[in-house]
Structure formats: structure tokens, C-alpha cells
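Checked the freezer inventory, then went back to the computational side. Two predictions to log before the end of the day. The first one is the construct we discussed on Monday; recording sequence and C-alpha cells without edits.
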Amino acid sequence: MSSQPAQASSPSGLKAVLVVPVVLATLVLGLKSVIPAQRQPAATLESDTELRWFKGNVHTHSHWSDGNDYLETIALWYRDRGYNFLTFTDHNVLANVDRWVEIDKTKGGRVAFDKLKAKFPDWVETRTEDGKEQVRLRRFDEVSAKLNVEREFLLIQGEELSDFFASPDYGKLPLHINAGNIYEKLAPAGGSSVAEVIQNNVDSVNKQRERTGQVMMVHLNHPNFGWAVRAEDLMRIIGERFFEVYNGHPGVNNKGNAERASTEKIWDIVLTKRLAELRLPVMYGLAVDDGHDYHNIPSRKSEPGRGWVMVLAPKLTATSLILALEAGQFYASSGVSLKKVESSDRGLSIEIDPVAGETYTIEFIGTRKGYNPVGTPVMGKDGKPLNTTHRYSDEIGTSLAKVEGNSARYDFKGDEIYVRATITSSALHPNPSEVGDFQQAWVQPVLGPACPPQND
């Protein structure tokens, strides 16, 4: 499926860089005109009569793989808490066949089963085999038909392609790629390096999208899980526009450590290299739950409600949401809400939807032309290089400005390659993935005046 960068205007005046087929984008997003452009046009992300903010999570696990609850109970948890969409992404499986499981051997056991019966008393199917009570796991189509609410709540079928690379030096490195709105199950594609495994799985999803005509979303999960993915691997992937800058699982090392880069630093290195050197498109940052544990919240496990995306789209359908995400019409959050994000050839401005009693720090981050591009390997205590992102100059992903308040604007100086923003609240996250996390939001990068024209 070929895609070209394009400038488009909606009836509401919203403009955005589209990286999806022009005709499809025009039909789905209701855009008036399509004008080829190499530069990123002005964009205003704000709810109006044509566009709404939709809150959603695109990384979720259930009893179909290693989660400890049922699809329908998980979906109800999100729906009851004001989410508009949820993508189920169990490991290497789709919930599209009939499956019976022994209740007491599920990860949720009797606790999850009793909750299921209480919430859906006329829905649960059980049987006894060899003296063991079993329950039928409801298929995705059954659960979505029961719980979807038109214009308010949508379930999306997905799969987490859970692959790995067996490195002779670093052991088995876990490499997980999510496919959203997938049409049929895919098998992990494998490869002879970390980058090749990622690329092969991304290609597999995109080939299914091209073959079926169904709009799908592919993204790299938790790069610091098992310290598997370096910025040097991710920066070269073709056809991949998203990765998880925030993942709510407490074991994925979002903040890195003294030897290894945080996910935000990885993002800035990837952006700088892709835009300034490789001439590849922007990589967007997602916030997700990666939920596995739905009982006894909070319990310092991998629980729901920690990270999400806010997508500005004309309607609540999988196609509309994914096209809006691919156009950068969203922000990621772990608790901070935004009213408006504006970008133009002059700069980037942000308006927060404040919570009484909270204060906010808005930090604009980017890389300027003339940065030092050289990275050096990080050495371990044994004197050998670690499998981790190289160390680069602080000129890459530097703090361009920091503002205290509910709104801020950054005006381009003329030498920026890109600018993005991180907003941090004074309020601690109520159930953080790492102790001491504050509530945050991540605004997607915009191209600066020094960004070279991009290939797509």
C-alpha cells in the first residue's frame, strides 16, 4: 500500500500531515482537498463540532494469553471509567475460535470467574469435564457485539506478535510488536538481528493491511523490556510510525538506568537520526497500559488505567482512529489532559485542561541543526559493550524551553530539526508503573525549519 505525505484541510480547518493513502484518508476523515507537500502544514488539535477527543488504550491482555481476567470484564472496566476504545492484544493469538478452559487453572482463578458471573449472570457458559469445571472464553466478536456502544465505546481486535532474537552475545532478547485492527492472526516472523526481527514483523502486518484493504496499526512495544531494543535498531525501521514512550507495566524500564537510555531519550535519538540523517518519517510516541492484572488494584503489578492516548478524530471507528493516529492527531498521557495543541511554521503551542490544585511544567524538547551525530558504545564492567543505545551528545533531545503554567508557546528560532513537548503535573500518578512517577502528557513532534525534506 503506497503512501505519500500530503497536506489536507477538514471542514473544521484542521490540517495535518497524512501518511496514509490519500484517497482513503479523504473518504474517511472527510477532508476537502489534498495538496502534495514536503513540509508539515499548520495543525490545530482541538475538539469542535466535527472532531472529538477519544480516549483509548492500545495494549491489553486477557485470559486468551497471560492476562488474569476475561475479555468482557476487562472491557467493562474500561468502559465504566470513560474510555472510548480498547484494543485487545494477546500474545500470538486472536480470540476468534471456541475455547474452553479449566476455571481453577486460569490466571484469574475463582476470583475472576466470580466477578464474571456477578457482572454477566446470564452470559457465562460452563461445563464439567473429568470432574473439572470449565468455562467457555467468549470470542472477540461476541464480546464486542455485547459491549460496544455506538459513538461512545469501541473494542478493537489486535495481536501482540511476541518474537525474539537469540543473540550469541546477549542471550534471548524479547521483541514484541502490536498489530491493531488486525484481520487474521499472524505468526512471529523472526530474523537474523534485532532490527531484522522488528522489520519482518512490521512488514508482515503492513502486507496484511495491503492485501486485505483493512486499515491496521503497527507499533513497537516497550523497547527497554529485557533491554532488547536500541535506538540504533529502531531508527532504521521502515513502515513503523509508533513506539511506546510510556508503558504501564512495572517491569519495562521506562526510565532506563545509569547505563541505559530512557524511552524518552531513545525517542529523541530516533527522531534526530530519522529526520536529519536517514530522511525517514517522524516516529510517534504512545502511552499504554499493557495490562495483565485486574484484581486487587493497586497492587504494584501490570494494571489498567496507567497510560492512554487521546485521539482527535471525526468518528469512533477503528479506521478513523488509526488514520488520525497516523496523521499525528493525538497526544499520549498518564494523567494530564490537554485542551488544544497548535503547530505551524512559527512554532508549537499547548493549552492544558487543568485540575484544581495542580501545577504544570511544560518542557519543549528538540534537536538543533549542527548537533554532534556521533554515538559511542556503553561498556559494561567486563569491558565489553552492552546491548544498549549508544551515548550521544546532550545536543540530541535537548531542553529548548521550560514554562510553568497552564499554557505555553515555543517559537522556532530557525535551527530546530523537530520540537516535541512533555507536560508534567505536580500531582503524583495515583497508581504508577514506577514509584514516584508524576502524571504526564507527551505532545507529538513537529518538524522544525531546519528539518530536511523527508522520504516516506
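The second is the one RB wanted added to the comparison set:
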Amino acid sequence: MTGAGVPLRELGLVLLVATAITYLVTGVVRSVLVRTGRVAEVRQRDVHTQPTPSVGGVAMFTGLVCAVLLAAQLPALTRGFAPVTPEMTAVIAGAFAIVVVGIVDDLYELGALAKLAGQFFAALLMAFMGIVFTVFYVPFAGGTTLILDQVQGVALSAIFTVLLINAVNFVDGIDGLAAGLGMIAGSAILVFALTVLHDQGGAVSAYPPAIICAALVGICAGFLPHNFEPARIFMGDSGSMLIGLLLSAASVSASGKINMSLYGAADLVALVSPIIVVIAAIALPVLDLVWAVVRRTARGESPFKADAGHIHHRLLRLGHTHRRTVLVLYMWVSAVAFGAVSFSIVPVRYAAAFTAIALVLAFVATLVPWAKGKIGPQRSVDKQTALL
């Protein structure tokens, strides 16, 4: 290990195993899906033109389970598992439930209410088993700590989890986007967890979010080579909902469980609580989700009705190519997520400067298409506009 109680080598191994297993199993899953004819047909709102295998979430879940099983065998990481804490068991149980729901939806297209019920089941299962909000530290209210009872904690955790599941699911509409955003957001939360582990000398509460994020980053990194444009396989709802659940698990695990009393009032780690970092990391998909609901209800439609009005569709209409659209969104998520994290690890003036520069670069990249006049081989501007 390196650092004050920070098992960097072991977490790195967990990440690499998750990456390798996911990468290899994805190829196997794709081969099976092609042989059995299980491919996603092209819908009007899609940006791909060829039927493509889906259900890539199976490979991602396999990588997750293998990575967690490895972590449980590493002495430096055993503090993150039962009997010390039940959280990793809860994560696997919730992940299994959401992947099953996703597989059924990918293959047979569940109705909106049935899918929502499945999402709440997985979220409640994970909450009841140990991934639950307990307290909130409010740094801007004189160090106030809000203590939640079991009912409040489970309810809030479940709602938060379902929100993130749908946020990632909604943004998964273009090759490589969800996997990349999951990898970036997971990396940001992982950096925060490592900072806490370092500052608190290996606090038990910081182990589960660090392990979850290492595995999350790994499965996204392993799947991305198969999914980046032009995608050879889609993760499907089984994969996108898994990413959302793992982001929620990591954030709930970190939030409210860090001993902020160890930090002074002026310490920026205390001022940037875990939940703020998490909100920053998933700000883009959440905003896209909220705007989608507002947009659809304003038109008198169901908030669950799919359309082509997401952020990535709008960037395509601005003139960005398929790949450039994904890279621009990567820039925005990285700027916001790592900007928030930077306030907890470097002096405020440097963090503010880094965040400002990153946001300006993302803004410029958004407004100035790098391949003007092109939107990729999938759609024309007229067809994209006609869908709205």
C-alpha cells in the first residue's frame, strides 16, 4: 500500500480485473447474441443505422462480480466487506436485480410502469441491505448534521437510486456516451474516496465507495472499446441502469458516513461533502433527465416516452459528428465532476482556476463544431429536427 492507509495497488488491481473481464466477456456476449439473432432493431429516434446486439450489461455485471470477488480476497480491502460492513453484499444484490430487469427489458421491452417497479425493487433491496443514507453533514449551516431514521433513509436512498438509474438510462442514446460518462463520474468519486482514505488513515466507511468506483470505472473502460462509435454492441438498459445503480451506491455509501469532525471549519474537504461531489459528477445526465420530463409533459406526453431531444441530439444538430458529440459531453462531465473534486484536494484558488478553464474549454468546444457541416453518417439535420 501507498499513502496513509490508501490501498492504491489493490484498488488498481480491482480496476484492471474489472476492465479485462468485461472486455473479454463482452466479445463472447456479442458473439452469442449475433448467433441467436438477438439484435436491436433501428428505431426512428436512434442514431445508428444497422441492427446491433444489445444486452451488453451482462458482460459488465460479470466484470463487476469478478472484481468484487477479487477485492474480497485482498487483505488490504477486506475492511470493505462483511462482517465489518454489509455494503458490498448489498451492492451485488441490487446490481443483480437491476441487471435482470434490464435484460428482460432489452429482450422483451417492458412497459414504463413495470420497468419503474423493477427499478424501485432493486433500489429498495440495496437500501434495506445496507446502502442507505443515515446522516447529512451541512457545512454551510454551522456544521449541522441531519440524522435520518430508517424509514427516511431507505425512502430517500431508493428515490435517489431510481433517479440516477433513469438519468444514465435516458442519456444512453449514442455510442460510447453512457460508458464514458460512467467512467468519468466513477473516477471523480473514486478520487474523493481516496482523498478521504488518505486524510482519515483508512477509515472503514471510505472502503466500499472506493471499491465500488474502482469496479465501476473498470467495467466502463472494458466495455467502451466495443461500444465507441461505431458500436459493435450496446450495453442496453441492463448496462445503463447498472451504471446508474453503482453511481448511487458509491455516493450513498460515501455521503453522511465520513467523520467530518476530523476536519477544521476552513478545511475544504469538509466544505465539499460527498453528496456535492456526486451531484457534480452526475449533473449532466440528471439535467438531461429533468429537461426530458419537462419537455415531454409540456407537450402533453408521458415523461417516459422516448424522443430525440436529449443533449446529444442537440449537439448533433449543432454540426458535431457522432464522435465529437461524445467527446464534447465527456469534456463537460469531466470539467464539472473533477472541478468539484479539486476543491477537496488542492487550494481553492487553484481549484477555481482549473474549474474555470475546463468549463471555458468545454463551452468553446460546444459552440464551435470541429467538423463544421457534418453530423456523422447516421442522420441528416432535417431528419433529426423532424423528430422533435
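For RB: The beta strands are 39-40, 52-53, 135-138, 144-147. The first strand starts at residue 39 and ends at 40. Let me know if you want it refolded.
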